[in-house]
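Entry type: protein chain
Record version: 2
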Amino acid sequence: MAQLPITYWSREQMLKRVARFSQLQGSDGGLPDSKYPESIRTLYNVIGFQPPPDEGGAVSSPVGAEASRMSAIPISEGFNLGFCRCKPGKGPLMHNHDTNETFMALTGVWRASWESAPGKVEYVDLNTYDVVSFPSGVPRRFENVTPGDPNADALLLFVIGGNGPKAEFTDSALELLEKAGLPTN
């Protein structure tokens, strides 16, 4: 019978892999839609999300250039984990990834939308602890749709597969940014 290799780690080694939520540094910039009013959000890079080597233009790290350099646990072990915090009515524009992306609503209500055909958008609303998982290449977005106080932030957890996943905004998202006079890179 095959056995998995066993390694032993000291407490000091393991503490380098602990991220305290209260100590996370978020970023609200570094993505093409970061300054678009409906997309204002803070992204927290907890595990992974190293900047892709060919970063630039519409292709970037899923958490943006700034947050990709602020990983609390800077490892590349096949997945990346982060949080998004924003007010109701806010979230990224339509984009896709070259790997799987999975969302879990931690607080509030989040709308996960995707393109089911050219020009056709479907969605599902996620309540606390609900999960949706998007395969690679499916254009998607998420938005805080929590009713009530328009100034109350909600928190979403996201996990994206791969060691250096890429995000790419759709042509329609880039057109919105151009119409708003915002740079697309």
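Comment: Residues 24-179 form a domain with the Jelly Rolls fold (CATH 2.60.120.10).
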